[in-house]
Amino acid sequence: MRIIRAKDYEDMSRKAANIISAQIIMKPECVLGLATGSTPIGAYARLVEWYQKGDLDFSGVTTVNLDEYKGLTKDNDQSYYYFMHHHLFGKVNVDPTRTFLPDGTEKDSAKACADYDQVIEKTGGVDLQLLGLGHNGHIGFNEPADEFKASTNCVDLTESTIRANQRFFASIDEVPRQAYTMGIGTIMHARKILVVVSGQDKAQIVKDAFFGTITPKVPASVLQLHQDVTVVADEAAFSLIG
Q: FRET label pair with 99: which of 59, 68, 129, 156, CA 20 to 30 Å apart?
């Protein structure tokens, strides 16, 4: 595991964007696994900036996102489809037919998950998977559990995750209770993994996930077993690490 310390959120975002852009430059037809949430927004902004300057070309890139809320339509401004188009897809020259997310409108959970696993398989596998880190150690929406889930699955979101996501909705009652998420096994099959973390409130989970015991009770801890993981975090997130 490679650890990169950043001064602050902006520095973390720039360092993460550098790693993603290097992947695109080295392999223009790469498959990027992408994440949502507040943490990667800064990195996406840097990538858009570099594309607009002519330094990046997304025309050959394929993307697969980690997750999507079950029950939200693509035009819902809290769907991850909407998020990705607002922060990245709508601002660069990525081919819309090669941007993939789980189908949140599919009511049949088994079908939605199986379909998304097929999509990922047809891409040939993820070259670089971007991850955030939840306060309880979740990656994607893989919540603490008794075992690691291998493939795409429908998750009942924990109360802590629902509360964390409440800030994006008008009320807590509007926060979806379920989501489709790429499984831990699929994430671990990515050739490279990049984790971005920011803030003092993530300091304890950074310590537990990357320097503690490997356990499905802390899903991100499994990343310790991957052969090519880079963690980029700011000083606040690393404050409990010597």
A: 156
